Amino acid sequence: AKENENFSFQAEIKQLLHLLSHSLYQNKEIAIRELVSNASDALDKFRHVSLTDGKFADDKPLEIQIIPDNDKHILTIRDNGIGMTKEDLISNLGTIAHSGSLDYLKNLTGDSKKDVSLIGQFGVGFYSAFMLADRVEVVTRSYQEDNGWQWESFGTGEFTIAETEVEERGTSIRLHLKEDLEEFTNPERLKFILTRYSTFVPHAIIMDGEHVNNQQPIWVEPKSQLTEEQYDSFYQYLTHRSEEKPLWHLHLSADSPIQFHSILYCAPHNMEKMGFGVMEHGLHLCAKRILVESQCRELLPEYLRFVQGIVDSADLPLNVSRESLQDNTIFRKIAKVLTKKVLDHLQKMSESSTEEYLKFYDEFGMTLREGVNQDFENRMKIAKLLRFRSSDADGEGLTSLDEYLGRAKEDQTQIYYIGGPSLPQVKNNPNLEVFKRKGLEVLYLVDPVDEFMLAQLNTFEEKQIVSVDSADIEFPESTKSADDEQTAEAEEAASTPGFEKVVELFKEAIGEQVQDVRASKRLSEGIATLVSTGGISTQLEQALNMSAQ
Ligand code: ADP
Ligand code: MG
């Protein structure tokens, strides 16, 4: 036997292991799911290698073996996938790839039932092995090597690696089960778990010579034959979120211009809102049911990154490389169809299930609105999906631009908005007065990004979108009569010598800091206000100045 070499886990892993064995609620079943999913990934990687470099190909079927040993209390999960070199073992099974993952897990408290199942999303699924085992052995041989390696850890601070003979390519994870976990060598129990979590794994899972997951992939089946449960469980498989239901799903099949099947899902929560950085995203891309790429970003634009799912096309070659993907026209065509379908789906949803749509908008509106800038072609579709607070319901609830126009004066040529740091501040802005008096609705924007976006959008249904403090405001003719008297009065007041003096005094006092000081015809209650003469509102100007500092 060769020498053991000792290694220390990265500090974060030590903490994670501690968490896993102590504080977190433990749904131990998910450890099986994570290890099977890693085995499946390893098989995908090997298939990719063998397709791109023929010298590694052989005709052994790629499969996952589940081997329970009741006498020895050992459960082994074996794959003949890509395997690992010594360096792979050190970097893959000793460090956390994603920063932030641990912080999130640490913040989990009592009712963390749902959340521990997220472990797979954070790139730390492997360590769930220590929920089942107090000793884990990884015996592996890389497709590039003739020798193998044995990694071993007791889930404390260290692990060891030793060189060893391994007959075949691939990896075996040997779990020395904890004392009270005999159930995990019970074939019936294992079959239940595998069916529950791993039905959709795209490789054969074999236990006692029996193929456990021999099901048709659901995306090629007709919608009419599928149940909500099947859609939910496929979502859970794809996303590693075993307790979670998607907000909505969309099952598509197209024959032209490209043949493809697809199921798209929207997660119930926006991780970006919870303080994570920009989501990693992408759809699973399959060619004739075989996974080609698991996070294919080119299939949907950035602003739809909350959409997860799978796309399977018979028109794609199996060994597509990243480079060829990028200039593959088939591929761009699929993206175009998917984008349109998602936006149409959202539009329908906003009309027929308003409440559900608003729930969606509350989570992902901030992502969707990026599309106004990113996707010129679909800009108007996206604009229709936007929602804002407005003076119509005194800042309560949300309105669409279409609804706004439905309430607008017949001869109104502009859509008015006002920006501010908070709803009370927006509502008290003196620039609103004249709009209230004339019965004109104003959108309330408390997020500078919304203002920026509306400035970009510029018009909607041929109506100019303007800030209430813009010099370009045109009041509808029909609102003028009611207001005439006051305006005349104000004009008169403004032209009285007394006002000229006031204006002069103001200019002397603050003249350097503003472009101009004028007597106003707009105000009746407030005594002074700031207006903007450029294309953007004062609020946005301030926000831009702040971000420039
Ligand atoms: P993730 O799967 O999200 O990357 P894991 O903690 O589950 O995170 O696994 C960490 C890494 O360990 C994987 O990315 C992979 O490189 C390696 N790995 C785990 N299991 C296997 C296996 N059965 N075969 C080959 N590599 C594996
Ligand atoms: Mg994993």
Automatic annotation (TrEMBL):
Molecular function in Gene Ontology: ATP binding; ATP hydrolysis activity; ATP-dependent protein folding chaperone; unfolded protein binding
Q: What CDD domains does the record tag this protein with?
A: HATPase_Hsp90-like
Which amino acid positions bind ATP, per UniProt? 34, 38, 79, 84, 92, 99-100, 121-126, 171, 322
Name where it mostly resides.
cytoplasm
Q: What UniProt keywords are attached to this protein's entry?
A: ATP-binding, Chaperone, Cytoplasm, Nucleotide-binding, Stress response
Whether Chaperone counts among this entry's keywords is yes
| Any single GO CC term annotated in Swiss-Prot or TrEMBL for this entry | cytoplasm
Chain residue ranges for the region called A: 1-322
State whether it acts alone or in a complex, and with which partners, per the record. Answer: Homodimer.
Return the similarity comment. Belongs to the heat shock protein 90 family.
- Quote the function comment for this protein: Molecular chaperone. Has ATPase activity.
Give the protein's recorded name: Chaperone protein HtpG
Q: Which organism is it from?
A: Polystyrenella longa
Cite the source lineage. Answer: Bacteria, Pseudomonadati, Planctomycetota, Planctomycetia, Planctomycetales
